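Researcher: Next sequence.
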Amino acid sequence: MLVYIILFLFLLLIIFPDMPQRNTLLVCSVVFMFLIGMFRSMSVGTDNLIYSETFYTTTWESIFNKSDGIGETDFEIGYSVWIVLFRNFICDEYIAFMSVSFFITMSLFLSAIKRSKELYLSLFLFYALSFYFLSFNIMRQMMGCALILSLLPFFVRKQIGVVAYSIWIFLISFGFHKSLIVFFLVILIVQTPIVDYLVRKKTLISIAVFSIFVLAGVSSLQDIITSIREFFILMGNERYAEYLSPDNLGESSVSFFSSFIKLGFLIFLIVISPINILKSFSFIGLYLSVCISNILGSISVLFTRISTNLEIMFIFFIPFLYVTLEQNKEKKMLIMVTIGYSTTFFLNYLLKGYAGVVPYNTFLLDF
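Model: Next structure:
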């Protein structure tokens, strides 16, 4: 755990503009992030065993002939093709995992450079809000998310159109993780008059507060969930159907404590933000993530996975808000509240041992 806390402190220090050797600390922190992720042991993370088995069992035949598939580890075609191509050239699962970790971190780092208004703050949020740790587990999902976000700056600047970006989302969703299709929902809201009706501060706060009551009181939506499960079975997606099985329904995958502090932080952001930036792609994305997680995450882990894709918008919106605020008092308040929220979230994540990232071990010592 100590190695995680040291990196957290490094990233926290570089938030402050007056920090001496700020750029040096930035470079050291990024290198440190690469090394921790790339050289972690197979015991760091809960999904490594599945990915390890898939690395050796995925073949061209299992990709294009489902009758010869590999059952529960039958992943999407994009990730499967990557596995086969990688294994044909470098037959080593550790190097494969190292490359995935490097790709995810580097892609999101480059996206932050292109999109973020305050790179130092974005990197801190990427780490402190656990997205870095998620890449140790939900690798396909994070790879796909990184690819979608890689073109987001061009979409926001209108250098690529809605149709082109939608096609890109569609291809990545079905190539790496189908939950990424939720990005279409953000485009639908941002690019239509829906955003004008939704983005009123009282409306946003009311819906968000309602979602936490749903999280606290919902017992089941059995008929709706059963219909969705039957649809996944019909489409041949047994793995997604399993998320909605009776054994999983009603077992909340959402921490009420995490959801409560996230709701408080979201309301703070709504109150302090100018109304015009609440219509941005990044805000709508993070707002939907909180509502989806609270309302539907209490029913099945599937919806928690879906909301995670959009929650990463925190790393873009908060820096955007920071540079938009005109008064230094508001900027300082935003930074202090963000640090408080992020620190609470980070410590809660580590102390409860989410996603199997604690204790940290490196495969360099696995003899």
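Model: Confidence is low (pLDDT under 50) at residues 67-73, 249-253. The two ends are 21 Å apart (CA to CA).
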